[in-house]
Specification:
The chain is α+β, with helices and mostly antiparallel strands and 250 residues long. It is built from seven helices and ten strands.
Length: 250
């Protein structure tokens, strides 16, 4: 059985195609890694890459991609609908075959330590790699986003797992973790009223008493003149897509 691990880094740029191509190019340059998808959204101002390969090669690609994001994205100038705290906002590793979740956690820690040490970007470990229960959930790690974390990162409870307790001056901070597969599922609404999307998101997400293993928020897709309910289904075996969709329709 081949040893395969997937990485799905999210970086805070969804508008400048030349920047997106340079960051994605860092993955293509690593032998033994296959880039499966590049998905960008200008309203979210965010791009998601998906690539797969053997753990060592995927770890190298994840670091190089982060280095490019740090070089090319200035968080002091970045705005968008999606929550974020850094140029390379989140780097999750997902075991696919021949590797365990423990292997993915080990890789997350190795890459996280390297990002902090070589790029001077503070790193927070999350999900299966979290060092405390308070950092299991990505929204908790990203609380306050880039602007808020600048004010709180020096406090004991917000101290990063790797690196100094201060933000990179232009690249912010990065979350690195290991997790099972999730489904990113967005539903566009037939309205431009953001309070409606936010109310639906609140009703859906587990943290507000909604569906188990669901993260959700309402976002404004100004370029399309509509709003959207953006969801992460963390465990589709317990909360499948159709259940989340039907609740949005209600």
């Amino acid at each position: 059985m081949p040893r395969l691990i997937e990485c799905i880094p999210n970086f805070s740029e969804g508008r400048r195609q030349s920047v997106i191509e340079q960051i994605a190019g860092a993955v293509r340059a690593v032998e033994g890694v296959r880039l499966l998808d590049v998905s960008s959204n200008p309203d979210h101002n965010r791009t998601v890459l998906t690539f797969v390969g053997e753990p060592e090669a995927v770890g190298e690609a994840a670091f190089r991609t982060t280095a490019e994001a740090v070089r090319l994205i200035n968080m002091e100038e970045q705005t968008g609908e999606h929550p974020r705290m850094g140029a390379m906002d989140v780097v999750p590793f997902v075991p696919v075959s021949g590797v365990t979740m423990d292997d993915a956690v080990t890789l997350a820690k190795e890459v996280g330590k390297r990002i902090a040490g070589e790029l001077a970007v503070p790193v927070f470990l999350y999900s299966a790699a979290a060092t405390t229960p308070a950092r299991k959930r990505l929204p908790d790690v990203r609380k306050g986003e880039y602007e808020g974390l600048k004010q709180t990162i020096s406090t004991p409870e917000r101290k990063p797992d790797y690196g100094e307790a201060r933000m990179h001056p232009t690249a912010g901070a990065t979350a690195v973790g290991a997790r099972p597969p999730l489904i990113a599922f967005n539903v566009n609404l037939g309205t431009n009223k953001l309070p409606i999307a936010k109310a639906i998101g609140k009703a859906l997400r587990e943290s507000s008493g909604g569906l188990v293993n669901v993260q959700a928020l309402g976002v404004d897709l100004a370029a399309e003149g509509i709003v959207q309910v953006s969801m992460n289904l963390l465990d589709y075996t317990h909360t499948p897509i159709h259940r989340a969709y039907e609740l949005v329709r209600i």
